[in-house]
Specification:
- By secondary structure, the chain is mainly α.
- The chain has a single domain, classed as Rhodopsin 7-helix transmembrane proteins (Rhopdopsin 7-helix transmembrane proteins), CATH 1.20.1070.
- It has eleven helices and two strands, in the order H-H-H-H-H-H-E-E-H-H-H-H-H.
- The protein has a two-stranded antiparallel ribbon.
- The radius of gyration is 22 Å and the shape is globular.
- It is found in: Membrane.
Length: 320
């Protein structure tokens, strides 16, 4: 191994280790704090909160399972996934499905905000709590069924947990990861976020013109919670899209580098560095929603502090 490749490998090991530990520790804490906030009485008044609540659950599962697995295999040297067919299948099935479900719940929250700000009454009717409850329950069923092909086609070949070498499914699975899991939910979130922001701006301009009439639902100003949720969701979408694009770019570089005939050791090391770092940043995106909301939105901070104070007072009553 050249000195360049050796240094790059050592840098990669340290950077990804720190990112994964930060993701695991702060992501778990942030996820629990999000659950505390989204289950408050004030927050439960909005349909989007149900999507955010379920999304937080799958973000937590992604962090606890996927990141823990990364740390375990990178540091323990275990070869279990290359020895147990069941474990091989389960690992990749959940590593793909859990973060995909977390992303699609965020998309549903974004879509709900877009419906909520529409001037069309029929479209606004889709932004209801009863619809959010039904979709929130159905989404995991659909997600786990769609991803079942991973569990079926991943197995141990040539003493490695992988897709059968030379199989056309290799290209199908790559397309599935890039388009369905990464690109599609993020591009849809971005599109509907832009539509929502545009609708809110247009509404405010009309309000400033008439000083009395607002084109938002029922001709009234949008409720404080609804506007704050738009801000929370848009910020999370921007961060998610940026980090997902980094992962997509790193994965593309990895594919290009390995498609070169007889790549050098340095090229292989650079490709490995790119895809591993991209993976760490991808999972890191599920650790930051709570902190982004706390920094950007006073309304969110106030509700969180109220919930913590409520738990503190209840705890005191138990000991008095």
């Amino acid at each position: 191994m050249s000195s360049y490749a050796s240094i790059l490998t050592q840098i990669l090991s340290n950077i990804t280790l720190y990112i994964d530990y930060i993701t695991l520790i702060f992501g778990t804490i942030g996820g629990i704090c999000n659950l505390i906030t989204f289950t408050s009485r004030q927050m439960r008044q909005s349909a989007a909160v149900f999507y955010l609540l379920y999304g937080t659950i799958f973000q937590l599962l992604t962090i606890l399972y996927c990141v823990s697995m990364r740390l375990f295999y990178d540091r323990s040297g275990s070869n279990l996934q290359n020895e147990s067919s069941i474990f091989c299948k389960l690992r990749y099935y959940f590593v793909v499905t859990l973060p995909a479900l977390a992303s699609y719940y965020m998309f549903l929250a974004t879509l709900d905000r877009c419906f909520c700000t529409s001037i069309n009454v029929k479209i606004r009717a889709w932004s209801e709590i009863k619809i959010a409850k039904r979709l929130s329950i159905c989404m995991p069923i659909v997600g786990f069924i769609i991803s079942i092909h991973i569990f079926i086609l991943y197995d141990i070949y040539n003493n490695l947990c992988q897709i059968k070498p030379g199989s056309i499914y290799t290209f199908i699975f790559t397309g599935y990861l890039i388009v369905i899991v990464t690109f599609l939910p993020n591009i849809l979130m971005l599109i509907f976020s832009l539509i929502t922001v545009s609708a809110v701006r247009n509404s405010r301009q009309r309000v400033n013109t008439t000083n009395r009439v607002n084109s938002m639902p029922n001709g009234q100003r949008p409720q404080r919670l609804e506007l704050k949720l738009i801000k929370i969701i848009v910020i999370q979408v921007v961060l998610s899209v940026l980090l997902s694009l980094l992962r997509l770019g790193s994965y593309s570089y990895y594919i290009i580098a390995n498609s070169i005939s007889n790549p050098t050791i340095n090229q292989r090391s650079a490709a490995g560095f790119a895809i591993s770092l991209g993976g760490s940043l991808y999972f890191f995106s599920y650790a930051i929603p709570f902190y982004a909301s706390m920094i950007s939105t006073k309304y969110f901070r106030d509700i969180f502090y109220q919930r913590i104070l409520l738990f503190y007072r209840r705890s005191l009553r138990q000991f008095i």
